[in-house]
Amino acid sequence: MMYPFAKNILRICSVTFLILFVTGCEELLTDLDASDDRERIVDTWKCNESDPYLKSARSVYWVEIDKHPSDSNRVIIFNFFDLDEDIYAEVIVSGNNLTLPNQTLEGGFTFHGSGQVSRNADEIDWEYFFDDGSGEDKKVTAVYTRL
Known about the structure:
The protein has 147 residues and is of the alpha+beta class. The protein has two domains: 1-35; 38-146, Calycin beta-barrel core domain (Lipocalin), CATH 2.40.128. It has one helix and eight strands, in the order H-E-E-E-E-E-E-E-E. The protein has one helix spanning 4-34, and strands spanning 43-50, 58-67, 74-78, 88-94, 97-105, 109-117, 123-131, 138-146. The chain has an eight-stranded antiparallel β-barrel with strand order 1-2-3-4-5-6-7-8. A hairpin with a 5-residue loop joins strand 6 and strand 7. The mean pLDDT is 84.
């Protein structure tokens, strides 16, 4: 037989333990999401690109960055190089470093290069190269700015 006072203490301890356990699990899940480097750059960005080869001296357009649906280390950038809103490039994300692996997009353009996400993730500086089918790489620099 337990004394009423002991029952109350047991209940208080049980509830306190349950609250601490649930809070701890919530923090763990939040920390797991925070470790996804892609989260920082998923958004709509304004691209200011210099490309003297195919476009005017400066080109400004919008891109959309989304998480890759099946690769947790990649994002997809829709409207990359202002090709079309349905055309996308795949980019590898590692911390603040972005790698545009060699890939041929619709229209026959082949791209490769790299980017750097700013410390507060409001800007991405790019340097990439494209081949329009001529066999010659042409350099492009671009700055993505978050709105």
